[in-house]
């Protein structure tokens, strides 16, 4: 806070002036999920929930100021890729007063792993830490109203194959329920369970088992 003193002859006015906070910048790049190389994309952003602040870019990078405490949604679209929406929060500001958020796009027809989706061990209960990523999926579907997705559930191949199939089905149904509760129509979210039949790794290590336990998203219609 600064003090501004203005003098008019024998009169004096003392005004307290609030120092303006430096602006916060949201910055990031759009990349191919396979190669990690930059992709020129149509990027649009808007404040949540009103959308009163908005803008767009046509590039592989983006940067825009964040005002106040509002969250912003950023949607990236490129030919040959599935669209994706992410949410940035000014609470995630770094030491340089920036919120960094890259957007990785998956080629059309390929599945995208929900990398931050966590379940309670052996159960279909979604960990609250996963809500942010699922909220981004819901927001992407609201932005692209014709999109239909398929959630594909996988487990590791330890134990009963019947139990693993049931668990993978319960987990994708739990994710579907979450998205429906966020306003997505049921018929836009398909589910498919694979149990442990499609491992990404056949190694018998804890890391490999964790890699095989996953939910992937496939866009069936856009």
Automatic annotation (TrEMBL):
* SUPFAM superfamilies recorded: OmpA-like (SSF103088)
Q: Which intervals hold domain OmpA-like?
A: 106-222
- Signal peptide as annotated in the record: 1-19
Keywords, A to Z, come to: Cell outer membrane, Membrane, Signal
- A Pfam entry, by short name: OmpA
Q: Which InterPro entries match?
A: Bact_OuterMem_StrucFunc (IPR050330), OMP_bac (IPR006664), OmpA-like (IPR006665), OmpA-like_sf (IPR036737)
Can you say where in the cell this protein is located?
Answer: Cell outer membrane
Any one of the GO CC terms = cell outer membrane
Q: What is its main location?
A: membrane
Record's protein name: Outer membrane protein OmpA
Origin species = Chryseolinea serpens
């Amino acid at each position: 806070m600064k003090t501004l003193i203005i003098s008019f002859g024998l009169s004096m006015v003392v005004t307290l002036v609030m120092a303006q906070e430096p602006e916060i910048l949201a910055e990031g790049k759009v990349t191919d999920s396979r190669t990690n190389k930059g992709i020129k994309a149509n990027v649009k952003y808007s404040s949540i929930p009103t959308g009163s602040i908005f803008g767009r870019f046509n590039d592989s990078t983006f940067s825009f100021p964040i005002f106040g405490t509002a969250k912003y949604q950023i949607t990236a679209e490129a030919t040959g890729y599935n669209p994706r929406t992410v949410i940035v929060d000014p609470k995630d500001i770094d030491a340089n007063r920036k919120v960094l958020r890259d957007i990785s796009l998956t080629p059309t027809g390929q599945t995208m792993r929900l990398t931050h989706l966590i379940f309670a061990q052996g159960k279909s209960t979604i960990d609250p830490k996963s809500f942010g990523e699922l909220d981004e999926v819901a927001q992407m579907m609201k932005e692209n109203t014709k999109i239909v997705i398929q959630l594909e559930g996988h487990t590791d191949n330890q134990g009963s194959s019947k139990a693993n199939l049931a668990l993978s089905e319960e987990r994708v149904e739990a994710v579907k329920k979450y998205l429906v509760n966020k306003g997505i129509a049921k018929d836009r979210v398909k589910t498919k369970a694979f149990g442990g039949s499609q491992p990404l790794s056949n190694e018998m290590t804890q890391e490999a088992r964790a890699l095989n336990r996953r939910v992937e998203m496939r866009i069936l219609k856009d």
